[in-house]
Amino acid sequence: MKIKHVGGVAIVTAMLALVAACGSSKTGAASQPKSPAAPTSGVGAPAGSAGAVATVKTAAGSVGTHLTDGEGRTLYLWVADKSGPSTCYDACAQAWPPLLTSGAPTAASGVDASKLRTSKRTDGTTQVTYYGHSLYRFSQDASAGDTKGQGSNGFGAKWWMVGTNGQPLTGGAGASPSSGGGYNY
Q: What is the DSSP pairing of strand 76-78 with strand 159-162?
């Protein structure tokens, strides 16, 4: 008798699992598994994400004309990235999302297209570079025109807005004559 009871429980459990797996749908179609979301480069927007081709534009600001992403959000360089690929990962990349692209980035008017390149990151994504500098956004820049990251000393080195000539724009917040972080230009 115990065996029948255990068998009945097993059958009921299996039927419940089958019903739960099928789920309910208004169209009657079985639910499809969701594909994992594409990694994004942050600040809650798809521009510059791993699944989109990045566009680099320019904007005029208080420290000069600087680079922005396709949605007008300020782009920065990190003094710690001396040369070669980015060294900003983990917590750094959360605060300073890299500008990612799924193909050759597009240069808008005022951006030297011949200096716009890409670099592979260790996670397999492709980051946009300009004059050899890896490009980033700042997570606290919530909208186009924000420059809250200018002159920050996050993660042990300065962050500067990028000029159209690829040089850091070292004026503005956090700037001082000796705050270049040892970056040679």
A: antiparallel
